[in-house]
């Protein structure tokens, strides 16, 4: 177990040494190296930290930030890299965005606060790790007791916190976009309803006279039909009366006269 732990320790040291060598190499102010650094695999993740983009410590004064920005922006500017135009443009935009974040006092302060929170969380994590090892009777120090590894642990935590901030920002952006879309759809529905109401009112007004005329015609037709029906009924009563009288007289039969007998 101790041998395995020693092997892991050695592997970590080799990895960390390699990372530092890459950082040292990339810190050389050459156009190609800076463009490659800013567009390397996983760059979207690393470039969330503006201090990382400009290769600065979080306590760097603003004047030094400006100087570093000018030197890097000149190196990666598309005009200086005509053979690598597209990548140079991307790198230039990344540097410009990082500088805008640090140039603004409010956003620079928030970035510094991320480093402070990362340090607090790292210290808490180390304390919990030591506490657990002591409870298990296995404590003889932790890797983070070494300054280089402690600094690396904070570096990892800083990247994680910036990633969390970006994820929350994207979630809020999506939520805000959906809310704006919902409001716009509601506005469109209201506009359509108003248009339909206006169209219905317009058609109603235009057809008013036709409806009035139709009603008058209907009323006139109803009156004529009623008069005709009354006349027909009266005529029918008269005819019936005449028939009744005629029937009364035509149905009378006089008595027959019997011959006289002696």
Polypeptide structure, described:
The protein is mainly α and 262 residues long. It has a domain at 16-103: Orthogonal Bundle (Helix Hairpins). 80% of the residues lie in helices and 0% in strands. The chain contains 9 helices and no strands. It has helices at residues 2-26, 31-38, 43-46, 50-53, 62-76, 85-103, 105-135, 147-206, 208-250. Helix 5 (62-76) runs antiparallel to helix 6 (85-103). The longest helix is centred in the last third of the chain and has 60 residues, at 147-206. It is elongated. The model has no long low-confidence stretch (mean pLDDT 81). It comes from Anopheles christyi. Residues 222-239 have a biased composition (Low complexity). This is J domain-containing protein. Residues 176-262 are annotated as: Disordered. Residues 210-221 have a biased composition (Polar residues).
Strand content: under 5%
- Main sheet? none
**Helix tally?**
9
Uncertain parts:
none
Tell me what the CATH architecture of the domain at 16-103 is. Orthogonal Bundle
Order of helices and strands: HHHHHHHHH
Structural class category = mainly alpha
Report, as a whole number of angstroms, the end-to-end distance. 172 Å
User: How is the quaternary structure best described?
Assistant: single chain
From the 3D structure, determine the CATH topology of the domain at 16-103.
Helix Hairpins
For the record, the CATH class of the domain at 16-103 is: Mainly Alpha
- The helicity comes to over 70%
Q: Which term fits the overall shape?
A: elongated
Q: Any idea what the radius of gyration is? A: 50 Å
Protein name: J domain-containing protein
Organism: Anopheles christyi
InterPro entries: DnaJ_domain (IPR001623), DNAJC8 (IPR042858), J_dom_sf (IPR036869)
Region (Disordered): 176-262
């Amino acid at each position: 177990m101790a041998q395995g732990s020693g092997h892991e320790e050695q592997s970590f040291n080799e990895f960390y040494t390699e990372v530092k060598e890459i950082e040292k190499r990339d810190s050389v102010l050459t156009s190609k190296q800076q463009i490659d650094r800013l567009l390397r695999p996983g760059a979207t993740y690393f470039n969330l930290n503006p201090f990382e983009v400009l290769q600065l410590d979080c306590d760097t004064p603003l004047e030094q930030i400006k100087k570093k920005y000018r030197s890097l922006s000149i190196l990666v500017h598309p005009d200086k890299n005509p053979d690598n135009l597209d990548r140079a443009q991307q790198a230039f935009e990344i540097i410009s965005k990082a500088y805008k974040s640090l140039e603004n006092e409010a956003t620079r302060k928030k970035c510094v606060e991320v480093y402070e929170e990362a340090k607090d969380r790292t210290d808490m994590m180390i304390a919990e790790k030591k506490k657990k090892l002591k409870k298990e009777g296995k404590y003889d120090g932790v890797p983070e007791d070494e300054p280089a590894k402690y600094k690396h642990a904070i570096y990892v935590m800083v990247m994680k916190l910036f990633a969390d901030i970006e994820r929350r920002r994207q979630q809020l952006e999506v939520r805000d976009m959906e809310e704006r879309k919902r409001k716009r759809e509601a506005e469109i529905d209201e506009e359509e309803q108003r248009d339909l109401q206006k169209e219905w009112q317009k058609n109603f007004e235009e057809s008013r006279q036709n409806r009035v005329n139709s009603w008058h015609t209907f009323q006139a037709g109803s009156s004529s039909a009623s008069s005709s029906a009354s006349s027909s009924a009266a005529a029918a009563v008269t005819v019936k009366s005449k028939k009744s009288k005629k029937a009364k007289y035509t149905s009378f039969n006089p008595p027959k006269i019997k011959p006289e007998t002696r």
